[in-house]
Model the fold of this input.
Amino acid sequence: MTTFFCIQSLNMTLSKESSKPILDFKEFAVNIANEHQQLIEKCAFVKNSKPDVIIETSILVLGLLSYVHSKDAYQSIFLWIEKVF
Done:
């Protein structure tokens, strides 16, 4: 869930700043539902933070998670991160 939150926060922020459409992450994981998406959209951090803070924080958290997890376990997530960027 944390990884999804960070990737989707990046996705929403970068698409808003670049005026590009938001990528669809329905294939990200089976356990991600509309409720999770709504939590991200209504989150005070996403609603009230400046875009650079959201981007920096999300990249920091994803970097820490990738350091903790093995590269094999995190490989599929790297593909999603690449799509966002």
Notes: The mean pLDDT is 81. The first helix runs from residue 2 to 18. The chain is about 75% helix and 0% strand.
